[in-house]
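To whoever is covering the structure queue this week,

Two jobs came back overnight. Logging them here so there's a record in the thread.

Job A:
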Amino acid sequence: MLTKLELFQAFVAPAIFISAAGLFVLSLNARLLAMVSRLRVFHREKHLAASAGRKQEAIAFHSQIESIENRAEKIKQAFFFMLLGTLGVMLTCLLLGLGLYAPDALLFAVILFVLSVLSMMIGMGFYIAEVFIALSSVKEEEKLYGLIDSLNLTDE
């Protein structure tokens, strides 16, 4: 049976993980919202280019859209695993509380906590992967605008 001090100590680690996960989820949300806004702009620009008969420009926008969608998929995966880990940590806290009355729950709490931390680590892996490809996306965008500028100059 856990004492109140031991129970308090057991709750501290999951509580810290919940706070940390919340900050990561907030960061992921900001990145995802920026990507969604960017995608809307590129879809509109692609539509306008296609409507105006500027095929090369529309193709260039399509390439950029695919790149951003790939990044958004990584952020979505990071979101999922971070939220799954956060849910697991919350359930860990619940099991630790139940451990006061049912000591068998403590073993499940430990197992769930380890799985939750692994889930968060997987989420961080997706986040890191997205950050690494973010710069390549910017470089592609630079090429895109260079292509558009060259096409616009030849049209004049």
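Job B:
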Amino acid sequence: MIRALFTAATGLQAQQMNTDVIANNIANANTPGFKRDRLNFQDLLYQTFRRAGQTTMTGSQVPTSLRVGHGVRPIATQKIFLLGAAQPTGNSLDLMIQGDGFFQVTLADGTPAYTRDGTFKLDSEGNIVTADGLFIEPPITIPDDAIGIEVAADGTVSALLGSDVTLTQVGQIQLVRFQNPAGLQTIGQNLYRETDASGNPQIGTPGEEGYGQIAQGFIEMSNVSIVEELVNLIIAQRAFETNSRAVDVADQLLNISNNLAR
């Protein structure tokens, strides 16, 4: 009964974290480029009273074991990198990756970071930057006399300059892929960092060798499904309630044991 209390407590803690993850997904339902998280669980150690295959005193073999588990624990928070819905904006600097890949940006300390959020802006010097002012890599600067910007599916950035009637190429957007994108470190601001688990960044041209194409005038919305998250929230709530009930039952059994001598 004491074991049941601690076992049920692990279930309560696990479902509390599961609820926290689901709440974060719901909170970011409208965040461009956001990828939903899924909490993975793992059962804990088992106490074995009789092993399968053990020989009894009569010489027969035990077909199954007798064991009791000690609960559950969260083992990983996995990013689900499914493509989000495309939302048309008409903004020439809103870019969406149709397929695999990340935009690379440079953090304030000079280190690289990666994002699926393509809501880019121009700073005071004409540089293409994120909403937080981070430079896209490789850097792209739009001339002062540009009156129009066009981004092709292969990432070629062109501008219509002054009185010119033809477009002038001013830069090239490159994408980055990882062997294991789920291993990237989430650092907030719609950004990821490379880790040993993600593998080394592989830089390529949009539309080539499996890299996604660029769609101008669209942004990739969050891949969170509100209906699915609400269902998961109900499941987590019921699991939490059931574990709470297990604690209550174990407490009642302990109370009965304490009162046996009366």
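Note for Job B: The helical segments are 2-27, 226-258.

Please reply-all if you pick these up so we don't duplicate work.
Q.
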